[in-house]
Amino acid sequence: MSEQERRAELAESLAQVRDRLERACRAAGRGPDEVELLAVTKNFPAADVALLSDLGLRSFAENREQEARGKVAEHAELRPEAAPRWHMVGQLQRNKARSVARWADVVESVDSERLAQALARATANALEAGDRSGPLDVLVQVNLDEAAGRGGVAAGDVPRLAEKITTTSELRLRGVMAVAPLDGDPDVAFATLSEIAARLRVDHPEAVEVSAGMSGDLESAVAHGSTRVRVGTALLGRRRLISP
Ligand SMILES: *Cc1c(COP(=O)(O)O)cnc(C)c1O
To answer: Where is the Alanine racemase N-terminal domain positioned along the sequence (predicted)?
Structure first.
């Protein structure tokens, strides 16, 4: 496929996703600018990120640190003026904290105090080395699926982890993130998440973000107060492996 054809394809899918989002917001009585569209570019090349930048997107997400760090650098070369915000949304090992602190603006998948501590340290180092210019925004990932380990802390552990995050000066607690269970009702899951988020805001009013909803369930997430949908497949197509 030529770059021109790919650009047209992405423009069309972006228009469709924006249309879905707008309808979902209207149905929920919310304004279209209350929900941010985050493009999940995992398994797609930096060239696609560049085209999405051209189409006006400014927020991108990756779920594997190693894949992301190269792509972020490559995109910066392709579009030096774009100034995107990069989100890490996948499970993160503590030994990757150093690297993630150099490229991520937001880590949405913080699910342990030890990871939070490692990220705070890594952010301090990156600031000192001049590899980043500000604190790291973080979300607490909540596990809504007791059956499967898709990452995240149990609802009951959210307050303690949130407290831990706010004791660091390098991390900024911004809210919660979750993935709906594969085989459950997303309405039930996102309603639960909405309650957890509301309880968190009592003690941490700055934690306003609710990152919820993907290609298959963004309407449900928006109905339950999501402030950020993470969309991969509906924007970029079915994931294929990028060549190394
Ligand atoms: C891949 C991924 C998404 C996007 O999923 P799609 O169904 O492709 O839209 C969202 N969130 C996380 C955490 C992901 O890993």
So the answer is: 14-238
Helices and strands counted in the chain (H then E): 9, 8
Tell how far the Cα of 146 is from the centroid of ligand 1, in angstroms.
19
Ligand 1, atom nearest to 236 Cα: 8
- Cα 43 to middle of ligand 1, angstroms: 11
CATH of domain 3-236: 3.20.20.10
| Ligand 1 site, residue 107, Cβ cutoff 6 A | no
pTM over 0.90: yes
Cα 158 from Cα 142, distance rounded (Å): 7
Give the pLDDT of the chain (244 residues) as one tens digit per residue.
Answer: 899 999 999 999 999 999 999 999 999 999 999 999 999 999 999 999 999 999 999 999 999 999 999 999 999 999 999 999 999 999 999 999 999 999 999 999 999 999 999 999 999 999 999 999 999 999 999 999 876 666 899 999 999 999 999 999 999 999 999 999 988 899 999 999 999 999 999 999 999 999 999 999 999 999 999 999 999 999 999 866 555 4
Ligand 1 atom 11 nearest Cα: 230
CB burial class (10 A; 0-12, 13-18, 19+) of residue 173? buried
- Where exactly are the structural domains of the chain? 3-236
How far is the centre of ligand 1, averaged over its atoms, from the C-alpha of 40 (Å)? 6
Q: Residues 164, 168, 172, CA angle at the centre, nearest 5°?
A: 90
Q: Residues 35, 21: contact at Cβ < 8 Å?
A: yes
